[in-house]
Design a protein that fits this description.
The chain is α+β, with helices and mostly antiparallel strands. Helix content is 58%, strand content 19%. The chain has 9 helices and 15 strands. The strands form 2 sheets. Strands 1, 2, 3, 4, 5, 9, 11, 12, 14 and 15 form a 10-stranded mixed beta sheet that branches. The protein has a 5-stranded antiparallel beta sheet with strand order 7-6-8-13-10, with no helix packed on it. α6 runs antiparallel to α7 and α7 packs antiparallel against α8. It starts with a helix and ends in a 5-residue tail after the last helix. The relative contact order is 0.14.
Length: 656
């Protein structure tokens, strides 16, 4: 704008230098002369008006103009100018003549306000120069109701702020066009006719100063070719889209209700699954306790094996001692007593083993195993059936989730939980299948052990019967030896035969005890499997709980979606009902927009007086006071040189 004003000044100067002198055209007329107006206003730094004057320009001749001026003066000629009330007349032979009229109480079309804040506190502009801190400038433009005429609705404003980047950093101005001009940052605001502005400029300032703010107003008259029919067609498309949106919202609401019902079933199923898994866990605990009881019985039986083998070895040792003694004819009554005692221990151990094996055979079978678990609340066959049913139920819910993921509008919310739920469901199925496999393995193992017990019991029964005969023979032998009066040679032969037969018997006893030890060790593996099953059951309970919690969250999300879809359907229905009225309002807005784009096609209105009916153009040039630090006082007492006429004239069109 400064360049434009300097250009105007040079043009006017050139016009004055090269203007040809023509005879004055004298004609008395009361009609106003054709002219152009430029309204100049000096504003204070806060935007309030300080002074206003108007520069009127005419072609040469007899000039008549009107205006309530405080005083008038010619600017580029020495022609006399007369003022009578609101009538101004002069005659000039200049090709272009300019005069200035002062308007002391003029009301501009705009109320302009500049408010300054430093570090959050409001500061008067005259106190801001040289300060540092966080600066905020609030720039406001609004209509001045005290100004008559249509200037506010017909004229656009362009406001320019210039900030020195050496003094201002981190500049923000959201509504401005920002450009670099040398070392300055220029902020330009364009304010359309009939529109005000309320905006902020912020910066971090150091030793702050700011040049004058320049605000120019011109009449907006755009010659634009706009196909308003296309806009109206788009409005019709919008109305059709509203109907489609309403129909889609209703379908979404109905679909969300169905989905809500499905997720409710999923939630209830997950709750039943969690309860069933809890019962399964209780059954697994009962199974583990029952198997521990069986393990304790096997351990007790195995613990007696050492006594059996130890007694057998002692008896074999005593028998060999007797054999040696008989062979050396040195058998004593104490040896015989030891032999009888050892035989009695073996007989008692075999009897105890047989009783334990018989009790174990009576109490260990698959049917009794299941019956014991049933007494403790666990039906093995029903549990396996429930496991299979639970796996099928989970697969059904997985299929339902896949279907729900394909429903429009629901895929995103289902996707938030699908990955976690599907992974948890796979873990639960694996645990259920493992639980069934463990139950079947336990049944198989119990059945295998149970099938071997009759042979073991029968063997012990035979061993018991044989040893009773053997023990009777030992007793008779001991008695006979105690009252020995017979042939020692026959005794030695009998003892040799007894020792030979007992070696085979001792081998059988050791084989039996090894079998019992293997049986106890094998059952420990069953217990380890059941322990793993118990841990898996606990994990299954936890996982089913998480699955239930996930389905609850899913149900809550779908319920929220259902409520939102219903609210959306209500809103689109209301929107659809109001759409016809909205279409009429949009048509009116389009008409108003087309009129505003064309602007006011009539002649410009004079800012000075309604009597001026031949105005070609009216412009506004407003400028605020700069925010500057006070200049140091000059020591020289010299009077400032009075500016020449041309300096004064050019100064009217230049900015500081």
């Amino acid at each position: 704008m400064n360049m434009l004003k300097r250009g105007v000044s040079l043009l006017l100067s050139g016009t004055l230098i090269f203007a040809a002198v023509v005879p004055a055209y004298a004609a008395e007329t009361q009609e106003p002369s054709e002219k152009e107006e430029v309204v100049y206003a000096t504003l204070k730094a806060d935007g309030s008006v300080e002074s206003t004057y108007v520069v009127n320009s005419f072609s040469g001749g007899e000039i008549t103009d009107y205006g309530q001026y405080a005083n008038v003066k010619m600017l580029n000629t020495d022609d006399s100018i007369d003022q009578e009330g609101d009538k101004i007349t002069f005659s000039t032979s200049a090709e272009k003549a300019y005069y200035q009229g002062d308007l002391p109480d003029a009301q501009l079309p705009w109320k302009i306000s500049l408010t300054y804040f430093l570090d959050g506190e409001e500061v008067r502009p005259e106190e801001l120069a040289g300060k540092s801190g966080a600066l905020k400038i609030r720039f406001q433009v609004a209509e001045n109701p005290q100004c008559s005429g249509g200037f506010y609705k017909d004229y656009a404003l362009q406001a320019s702020f210039t900030l020195d980047t050496e003094q201002c950093a981190n500049i923000t101005a959201d509504d401005a066009t920002m450009a670099n001009v040398g070392g300055d940052k220029q902020l330009t605001y364009t304010i359309l006719p009939g529109e005000g502005i309320d905006t902020l400029i912020t910066a971090d300032v150091t030793d702050f100063e700011m040049k004058a703010v320049s605000i120019n107003g011109i009449r907006l008259n755009l010659s634009v070719d706009v196909d308003d029919q296309k806009i109206r067609d788009k409005v019709s498309e919008l109305m059709n889209a509203v109907e489609q949106l309403d129909n889609g919202a209703a379908e979404l609401s109905n679909g969300s209700v169905e989905v809500k019902g499905g997720t409710s079933q999923v939630k209830n199923g997950a709750s039943d699954l969690h309860s069933g898994v809890g019962q399964l866990d209780e059954g697994v605990v009962t199974l583990q306790n029952g198997l521990e009881t069986v393990q304790q019985g096997l351990d007790a039986l195995n613990s007696q094996s050492s006594a059996l083998t130890s007694g057998s070895k002692e008896f074999q040792t005593a028998l060999r001692t007797i054999q040696t003694a008989v062979d050396s004819l040195s058998v004593t009554n104490q040896d015989l007593s030891d032999l009888a005692a050892a035989s009695g221990q073996i007989h008692q151990a075999i009897s105890d083993l047989y009783d334990g094996a018989a009790a174990l055979q009576a109490n260990l079978s698959v049917e009794q195993y299941k019956a014991v678990l049933a007494q403790n609340g666990l039906d093995v066959d029903s549990l396996k059936s429930q496991n299979a049913s639970a796996v099928e139920t989970i697969q059904y819910y997985e299929s339902m989730l896949q279907q729900m993921a394909g429903i429009p509008g629901l895929s995103q919310i289902v996707g938030q939980y699908q990955g976690q739920l599907m992974g948890t469901a796979e873990q639960i199925k694996a645990l259920l299948n493992a639980n069934t496999a463990a139950l079947q393995g336990s049944e198989s193992y119990v059945e295998g052990v149970s099938s071997q017990l009759p042979a073991l019991t029968q063997g012990l029964s035979d061993l018991k019967a044989q040893y009773e005969t053997f023990d009777t023979a030992i007793s008779k032998l001991v008695n006979a030896l105690g009252n020995m009066t017979g042939n020692l040679s026959a005794l030695a032969d009998g003892i040799d035969q007894l020792s030979e037969n007992y070696t085979a018997l001792n081998a059988g006893i050791e084989g039996y005890t090894d079998g019992i030890a293997q049986l106890a060790a094998g059952y420990q593996q069953v217990m380890a499997g059941v322990s793993s099953l118990a841990q898996g059951s606990k994990a299954l309970v936890s996982a089913s709980g998480k699955l239930y919690d996930g389905t609850v969250e899913l149900y809550d999300g779908v319920a929220s979606l259902c409520d939102g879809a219903q609210e959306m359907a209500n809103g689109t229905g209301k929107f659809r009902q109001e759409a016809p009225n909205m279409e009429n309002e949009l048509e009116d807005k389009i008409d108003g927009l087309m009129n505003s784009l064309g602007g006011n096609q009539g002649n410009p209105q004079s800012f000075v007086s309604d009597k001026n009916t031949k105005v070609d153009s009216v412009q506004f040039a407003l400028q605020t006071a700069a925010i500057e630090k006070a200049e140091p006082e000059k020591t020289s007492q010299e009077q400032p040189e009075e500016p020449s006429f041309w300096q004064k004239f050019i100064g009217l069109f230049s900015t500081k």
